[in-house]
Amino acid sequence: MGLTQWKRERVIMTFIMSLFIGSMTIVIEKCLQSLVVWKIMERLLAGLNLEGERNSVIISETDLHGTILSANDPFCTISGYSREELIGRSHNIIRHPSMPKELFRQLWMTIKKGDTFRAVIKNRTKSGDHYWVNATIMPVFHGGKIIRYVGGRYLITDDKLAEELFQKQMAAFENKG
């Protein structure tokens, strides 16, 4: 479905998403609402060379309370949960217990204001293992109101690098006040 068809269907909404991937930033403007958002992101990201980890781009959509509305195949594969196990559940299902509550307080404070949140986050798989992601989470607006949130993440496979990035990030959060 092309943009002209989407325009004809009058489902255009405006938002900007900046998703950091290595040294590349993709800005998506005037994306479409609801499930279409993550499909667009997935298509755009599918063509990128992520050092052989193209399939590790994780995309999900939640309601205003963090309940998962949609999840792409890489999300399911990496987390170990089936789509059926994820849809309707709190995004906290993948929250690793070692992640500080302050990080998620910052996340919610940021996205509820209408801003985009970026962070390195350690998640937990269904089996109890972990994986690190570089995450971008943003609100989706309709009629000037936030109607849901979309998250785009890519897998960080180097645990040592992820730990270093995480520690630097937490120091920066603490210095912000």
Topology:
Blueprint: H1 3-8, E1 16-21, E2 24-29, H2 36-46, E3 57-62, E4 68-71, H3 73-79, H4 83-86, H5 101-112, E5 117-124, E6 130-142, E7 145-156, H6 159-176
Antiparallel strand pairs: 1-2, 3-4, 3-7, 5-6, 6-7
What does this structure look like?
- This protein has 177 residues and is an alpha+beta fold.
- Helices cover 33% and strands 31% of the residues.
- The protein is built from six helices and seven strands.
- The strands form two sheets. It has a five-stranded antiparallel beta sheet, with helices on both faces. It has a two-stranded antiparallel ribbon with strand order 1-2.
- Mean pLDDT is 76; it is low at 1-36 and 47-55.
Number of strands: 7
Distance between the termini: 45 Å
> Uncertain segments of ≥5 residues (pLDDT<50)?
1-36, 47-55
Query: What's the oligomerization state?
Result: single chain
Order of helices and strands: HEEHEEHHHEEEH
Mean pLDDT: 76
The largest sheet, given as strand count, sense and whether it forms a barrel, is: 5 strands, antiparallel
Q: What Rg is obtained from the alpha carbons, in whole angstroms?
A: 16 Å
**Strand percent estimate:** 25-35%
Fraction of residues in H or I helices: 25-40%
Spatially, the strands of the biggest sheet line up as: 4-3-7-6-5
Query: Class by helix and strand content?
Result: alpha+beta
